[in-house]
């Protein structure tokens, strides 16, 4: 499959692109056992390379969330292997997995998922602080990310004082704080109107391209698919279509 | 710690309410501890603050001073072997002040040698001598002054109030100290016997036949009604502390339950169990310590305006002990909440979509 990147990648990113950031091989997830078995995801192969923003779409119950939690090392697959940034996840224990998530995966969660009692800048600086790397450098990175996402005026505000779009941009900035190779976004436009949704996703696409990240976005918002590099359609736990948007 | 402080500050009203409830509980614990200890002081202050380590009574009296009569020979034998032995005699007295038909007051009449180690510390006036008595300062509330005449019932013998002492109460009554000789002459039926012999030492050398020694703690238990009263008071304190601990634990637990989703979110962005647990414990400690400080200040303020006759006794060391206990039980209570944090699932932070 050809990798379509927008805008044009820098030479360094092309070299990186040779190796995919997220690789899933024959990954499936089955819940329950015996007669009560439910297959949330049938064996699936999937890859994301640096600079790509891949949209995963599908109706409710199609296995999108399961797909994202497997890619995000939040659940272990029943079969198959997940490799992120060259690390096979099945080789890590629970504690190592949490640490791995912290350093290599950035989550963009739904709009309400900011910590209500921290201001915008603290939402960001908390992440390296949790990883034991606080300090001026983290503060500078936070300021840079907030500027880049158009939130420079909002650094001292609390989530309750932000609009839905602003909250989502904070969530994107937060996901980038630990400089992860992989970014996973869960319905980032869920609570936004069309215009705000497009704005948020285009910012995500821009950051992903500029910083050479690999990103997967679960969404049911068809209006933003043109901003993505590729679209994967899931139905009943099976990939039914995969191709450029 | 950072998260703990930010959350407390952001939700300041909730923090203040929670801290306020903890402070009220702690205030109640302090006040009731003070009152119950005050009652226990009132019933045995003279013995609680006595420098005596050992009390000797007759074996058949089983430590009860009012049922013990030690003969002169035994007292003399005890004094030969134990130079500091201080005999004392105890009876009850009803009396009028300055006029035989005035309101009758009651006291424990205690006969002592004025140079023995048991002799009361004089806070006002002179030591007892002849018909001069030293009485506990709580009698001032009944209008007794230095130089007043005490007219004993029923036969009308007279004593003079020559001095006051403090902390001399026994069986919820003030103690009236007279010399041992005066006591013997006022109580001829005692036939020269004394109620007990007190020693500063923990052990008694050559105890005569028919006498038994008790430590101060044992003698307290033999004091009339003391054990029963202390049992009730102790149960009040135990229930109070237990219920306060439970209430505080439940409050912190409910506070934690409400935040389960938030814990999942924090876990999803990389917070470990240690960070979250540390944050919770820091909040519990901060709120509880602040509440205890407020409660201690409130208690101090209240004791300044309590009526003087109300028995209230609480030392700062007792406050510190009760505080440490409350802090400990609220920390134990927060262990309940740690389970909730451990179970919080970062998956919950991801939406419940397809």
UniProtKB/TrEMBL annotation, chain A:
Residues 22-245 form the ABC transporter domain. Part of the ABC transporter complex hrt involved in hemin import. Responsible for energy coupling to the transport system. It comes from Deinococcus piscis. This is Putative hemin import ATP-binding protein HrtA. The keyword Transcription does not apply. The complex is composed of two ATP-binding proteins (HrtA), two transmembrane proteins (HrtB) and a solute-binding protein. It is a peripheral membrane protein. Its main location: membrane. PANTHER family: HEMIN IMPORT ATP-BINDING PROTEIN HRTA-RELATED, IMPORT ATP-BINDING PROTEIN. GO terms for molecular function: ATP binding.
TrEMBL record, chain B:
It comes from the Bacteria. It is found in: Cell membrane. The keyword Membrane applies. Residues 236-345 form the ABC3 transporter permease C-terminal domain. InterPro entries: ABC-4/HrtB_transporter, ABC3_permease_C. It is a multi-pass membrane protein. This is ABC3 transporter permease C-terminal domain-containing protein. It comes from Deinococcus piscis.
